[in-house]
Structures
1.
Amino acid sequence: MRILVQRIAEAWVDIAGRATPHAGAGMLALVGFRRGDHAAQLPPMAAKLLGLRIFDDEAGRINRSLADIAGDLVVVSQFTLYADMRRGRRPGFDQAMPPAEARGLFDAFIDECRRGVPQLVTGEFGAGMAVHLTNDGPFTLLLDSDELNIHPPVSP
């Protein structure tokens, strides 16, 4: 599971000409799943995302979390986070989880995140969307479950 996180001043998503509610200061999270990802990864990844201390405190230090600033969260599905660019010029998406499986994990991830933020805005899984944001910083991070040692359970 990968999450591309951007600190935002504001953001919203247009889905077929229909705009989601505008989010204020907070985070935009682009979320992708690969084959083999599992629901057990969702709580620790959501906790990591929501606990990131990427906002300035009173002294100007990057030391506050989304909860500390009562910030908004925008979450959008993004299978292209698992694009394979090792060959040629066209990305391959064999590593990305098939949509039928990924949709359930995405919805469950939204549920995990919803518990920890005052406002959560989402895109629509599998839809063509235009994501509008003002990146604050710019400040962009990549969370990867492999690098964080948050792995799916091993089958016996």
2.
Amino acid sequence: MKKFFASAVFGLLALAVFLPKTSFAITVGPDKLEYTLAPGATVTGTLFVLNEGTTPQTLTPSFETFTETNGTKQFSAGTPSDLTNWFVLPSSTTLAAGESENIPFTLNVPQGAPAGGHFAVIWWNTAPAGAGMGDTSIVTRAGVLVYLNVTGQIDEAASVTHFAPTGGGHLFDFFPTNFDITFSDTGNDYLQPVGNIVIKDMFGLTDATFSVNKDGGEQILPQSAKDLPVTVESPSGAFGFGVYRAELALHYGQTNQEIDDSYTFVVITWQVVLLILIVLLLVLFGIARGVRKYNQWVIRKATAGLKVRDEEERE
């Protein structure tokens, strides 16, 4: 029985080693297509596809819409985009193992196309060569994101749904160096908000500044929200004490609209508290010592006065 088990294990290992390995992988580019076009406009370009697998592959394009939830793209499986009929692409292309190709495309924006943002992902799908009906196959796909802004009557609207130091709260024992901002796009076009946070102390003096979504790297799709990155520009020192106000100012859209928000918090740093206690103790010690010396002086004065009076009475 042991010999049989050992032979079986050896046979499985031999199969794992000597059976031909097949890999299926594709690379597409660019990662993103981004256009601002008027209704009736046409643009052409190319998409790069590479078969990184070890067997020939036939790639076919398909379109899906997508949305974003806090920066995470949610693809709507089986839901075609309106861009499906606006793009002209080959129905398929076959690539040998390791072969690449630049595939031409034409984007035609129809007359009467609704203004605002239109979004889709162009998937390039593949399956193992020779896979037929009933066969088990590994489907591989890679996508190119399309961000199209159609000019016209665009509704740019947004709000800040959350603004606070990371972790929340209003009382800190250190100066906060990170802030969370959730930006919600409620219009019909994608937005790239940029701005800053200015921290002011109780006297109105600027204590620190932060950049929000520096260079507009994050964009928010219509009817979605995303957390914006915050970068420290001029940080405050490690110590802080008192009441502070964080003032947020964001700009977005073609009309450079502005959103303002604020957050008040209190910083009580233990080092500062310790220093204040030490100063108070020194002051109290000084006062006590001064009072004691004053009392001693009063007593000496009174004693000296009594002695003088006694001497006068004796005379």
